[in-house]
Design brief:
alpha/beta; Rossmann fold; 8-stranded mixed sheet
Length: 281
Amino acid sequence: MSLPESALKAKSYTPPGTAFRRDSAGFPWRMPLPLAAMSNTSFTAANTRTANVDRAELERFSALAQRWWDPDGPGRTLHDINPLRLEYIRTRTSLAGARVLDLGCGGGILTEALAAAGADVTGIDASDQMIQVADLHAASRGLALDYRHATADAHARDNVARYDAIACMELLEHVPDPGSLLTACRTLLRPGGRLFLSTLNRTAAAYLLAVVGAEYLLGLLPRGTHDYARFIRPSELAHWCRDAGLELCDLAGMAYNPITRQATLRRSVQVNYLACCERPE
């Protein structure tokens, strides 16, 4: 689709025992992680703002790691929207044999889907707990996936122009410096490679639906998942992409029905939206 005019007129923005339940693969979603996995001390870089990681956000999501693969747990919406995210990506780039990075992979929901679509996938996340969950789930399904405990900046230092495509879903609004994250993505992409993003628009509709509705009224997400001040307008995303040396190629809104638990694309980008960017040749 063509980009809205507002996206082209960019402005800067500052903004012990547990009952086990199994998923469809028979994998227990409450996993008895080693005690060492419950500590952040093994990843000192994530404890500083200079690593472009918000410690409070990191701890909030790490606390959800053991239930990440529960389709009815705190990450249920990620399970529900995952088919649409995958479809958005594979209709805009070839995945068969492609080197793909799932940046901010969490417990690996999208990572596994990308691998099933034929991609050679690497998943990285700033949360050590999440990476352990992703590794365990992949192993339970006999998948050999490359998961790494790393930030985008650290990974970019040793993987310049390595990837054909990058998926960076529901991450931009959770880091202190989204522009810096996009710059790291450009470094990681080969010329002609594509970056796929999803985030939330900073509008009244997004606040009412994603915060008040999803977190407080319906309980679809844990309270505090989102900070409205960090939501990102398409114009701001376009600005940061240009600064990072990326071309914004496409925007598409995403609608989610909590009753049917289905996600669909739509023209309006007033709440959730997906974006496709490219590193010029």
